Amino acid sequence: MAARKPRRPGGNSSNERRSSTRVQAADAASNADPQPGTGRFASLATAELSVDQARGEGRQVLDISPKLLIPHPLNDPDRSVVDPKDPDGLLGSVKARGVRMVMAAATRAAFEARWPDLLPVDTEGEYVLLYGHRRRAAALAAGVLTVPVVVNDAELDQPDRGLVDMYLENKHHVGLAPLADAHLLNHFIEDMNLNQVELGEMLGVSQPTISRRLSLLLLAEPLRKEVIVKKTSGDEEESSEKKQADKNKLGPTEASTLATALPYGPVYSWQKSPDKDQDSPERLAEQLRAFELIKQGSLVSTAVARVKAERKSRATAAAQGWEIIDPVAHFGDSATALKHRYYEDPTGLSGIVVAIDEHGSLAHYNTDPAMEIDPDTLGDHDDDLDDEGDHDGGDDGDAPAHDGPSPASKKAKSDTGEAKKPRPAPKAPAAAKKPSDDSKARIEASKKRREAAQTLVLKAPAKDQLAQILIDQYAYGVITKASSEWALELAEQWGFVPTDDLDSPAARVSHAWALALAGYELAAADSTKWSTPQRIYITLLRDRAKYEPTAWEQKQLDQIN
After folding, report:
1. Rg (CA), the chain
2. Contact between 162 and 156 (Cβ < 8 Å)
3. Assign residue 107 a region: left if phi > 0, alpha if psi is -120 to 50, beta otherwise?
4. Which of 44, 242, 313, 463 is most deeply packed, by most CB within 10 A?
5. Which residue ranges are recorded for the region named Disordered (predicted)?
6. 451 Rama class: left (phi>0) / alpha (psi -120 to 50) / beta
7. At how many degrees (to 10) do helices 178-192 and 196-203 cross?
8. Contact 129/104 with Cβ under 8 angstroms?
C-alpha cells in the first residue's frame, strides 16, 4: 500500500472518502512496515540509489561538502552522531569507499521559507538534509571531502513538507529511537492537522501503535532518558553489556503504560481526556516514585496502583488532620510501634497518627500511652485462635465452640499482673473478645478473599510469574494444600472447569494457576497464625484484584516476623 499524502487543511470536503486501505485491527497490521512515500524523493527514502542509478532516473546529483549539510532539526539528533563501535559497518565502508549512495536535501533558503524560526540563526550550512543523516555523520568522521546529494526544494511544497519520506527513510534503515519517533509523529499531527487514524493510514501504522508512541511524550524529562532505545546489533559481548545497562530502564511498552496512567507535562491536542493534574509538581513526583518502584522489581501496573493509593491516603490523612509518620522513628522501634497499632475505625478519635504502608494504604496508630496493646494479651489472643483448628485437623479437630466458656481466666490473670496500668475503653473490649467473635472475623475475611480470588481464577498470569508463585508454594509447603482435593473443589466453586486433556501448555497453565490460587486460600483459612505464605497471598490479591485486607487480616500481617 502506498502511503498517501494528507489533504491540506480545508482542501477536501468532510464528505470525501479516502481510497487507501483502512488500518486493520489485527496484530499483523500493527507490526507491518510502512510502505514507500509518494514525494519527489520517494525512491530515495526506501531504496539506496547509487549515483549512476539516481542519474539514470533523471535526477541531478551534486557533490557537496558534508560540512555544508545541516541535519534536519526535526530528525533524531542521535542519527547525526557516529557510533564509534560502528555496529553495522557504515563508518568502515565510508572510510574505505566514500559515500556511494545518494542523499537528499533542500536549500536552506527554501527550508527557512517553509519552516520559519526552526533553524537557529547561528547554524552553519547551506543545505538542510532530508535523508542520509547517518551517512553525513560517517563522512564527517571519515574526513570525506564531498558526498553525492540530490537537491530539490519541491519536496518542501508537499503538504507534509518532506516529513513523511524522512520518516520512512528512517524506518527503512535504522529505526528511530522511541522518543524521536514520538516527536516526529506529534509534528505530523500538529503541523498537518491530522488525527491518529489519518496519520496511521498515511504511514501504514496502526492507530494503537501511534497512540502508544505519542504517550511517551507524557513522560517527565528524567524518565525519557530511561527509555530503552534499541538492541545492539554487534557481537554477543556487546549485546550482553547493553542488556545489563538496560536492566533498570523502561521498555517502550512499560514507558507507554506508565505515561498513560500517570501523564505529566503540557496537554497535547491528541489527548482524548487530559488529566487536570498532569502539569503539576505532584504528578512529576508520582512518575518518579513509580519508576523507583519499577526499578525495585514492581510491575508497572503494581507501581501505578501503589502511587495512586499513596495519593489517596495522603488526601485522607489531610482531610482528617492526621499526621503522617515513620512508625519506627516515631515510637522508637517496630515492637513499640506495633503496640500502638489501631485496627478499628479511628474516625473522631484524638491522638491518631498514620503511616503509609508498603501498599500505599493508611496504617493507624494511637499515640496515647494508655492505648498500648499488652504483648501478653496478643499471645493469649493467638492461643484462642489456635483452639479453633483447621481443615487438616489437629489436637482438637472439633469446630470452634461459639457458646463455650470464654478464656476469661487467662485474661484475668494477665490483667491482674497489670493492675496498676490503666487500660483504655476502646482497646479493652477488643482484647477480651471471645473466640467466637474472632472466628466470625476470620470467616468474613475468608469470604472476602474468596470473592477476590474468584475474579482471578480464570486469569492465569504470565508463565514467569506463575513459575515464581509455584516456587514459593513449594518452598513454604503450600503445595500440599494446592495439590489436595479441597483445592480442586474450591477452584471449581470459583468457576474453574478442569479437563483431563492436559497436553496443551495453556491447559496446564490454567490448571496449575487455579490450584495454586485455591491452595493459598486454604493455607490462609486454615492458619491461626499467619506467616510468609499468607503475606504472599494477600500481596497477590492486592496486585491482581485490587484487594484491600480486612482489619483482622491486617492485624495478622502486622504480626508476621
Report:
1. 33
2. yes
3. beta
4. 44
5. 1-42, 230-256, 366-447
6. alpha
7. 110
8. yes
- 217 in Cβ contact with 182 (< 8 Å): yes
Please tell me the distance from the alpha carbon of residue 383 to that of residue 489, in angstroms, as a whole number: 30
Distance from C-alpha of 469 to C-alpha of 268, rounded to nearest angstrom: 41
The residue count for the chain: 561
pLDDT tens-place string over residues 391-443: 444 333 333 333 333 333 333 334 444 444 443 434 434 444 455 677 889 99
Write phi, then psi, for 267 (nearest 5 degrees): -80, 135
Per-residue pLDDT at 294 exceeds 90: yes
Written in H, E and C, the secondary structure of 329-380 is: HHHCCHHHHHHCEECCCCCCCCCEEEEECCCCCEEEEECCHHHCCCHHHHHH
How many C-beta atoms lie closer than 10 Å to residue 514's C-beta? 26
User: What pLDDT digit, counting tens, does each position of 47-97 carry?
Assistant: 567 788 888 888 889 999 999 999 998 888 887 888 777 766 888 888 888
Q: In 3-state terms, what secondary structure has residue 444?
A: helix
Q: Which cell is 50 given? A: 547509487
Is the distance from CB of 145 to CB of 99 less than 8 angstroms? no
Cβ contacts of 497 within 8 Å, gap of 6 or more: none
CA-based end-to-end distance of the chain: 63
Q: Are 207 and 200 in contact (CB under 8 A)?
A: yes
- CA separation for the pair 430, 358 (Å, rounded): 26
* The residue type at 168: L
496-512: average pLDDT: 94
Cell numbers standing for residue 147: 558526498
Quick one: cell of 520? 493459598
Cα distances from 135 to residues 66, 129, 176, in angstroms, run 9, 11, 15
For residue 132, how many other CB atoms are within 10 A of its CB?
28
**DSSP string covering 482-529:** HTSHHHHHHHHHTT----S---SHHHHHHHHHHHHHHHHHHHHHH-SS
Are the CB atoms for 196 and 217 separated by under 8 Å? no
Between CA 127 and CA 68 the distance in angstroms is 6
From residue 230, alpha-carbon distances to 29, 242, 245, 252, 423 in Å are 21, 9, 12, 10, 64
Strand, helix or coil at 144?
coil
Q: How many CB atoms lie within 10 A of CB 413?
A: 11
Q: Which residues of 290-309 are buried (b: 16+ CB within 10 A; e: fewer)?
A: bbebbeeebbbebbbbbbeb
Q: How far apart are CA 179 and CA 213, in angstroms?
A: 8
For 422, phi then psi, to 5°, come to -65, 140
Extract long-range pairs of 490-496: CB within 8 Å, 24+ residues apart.
Answer: 490/450, 490/518, 490/521, 490/522, 491/457, 491/515, 491/517, 491/518, 494/450, 494/453, 494/454, 494/457, 494/518, 495/454, 495/457, 495/458, 496/457, 496/458
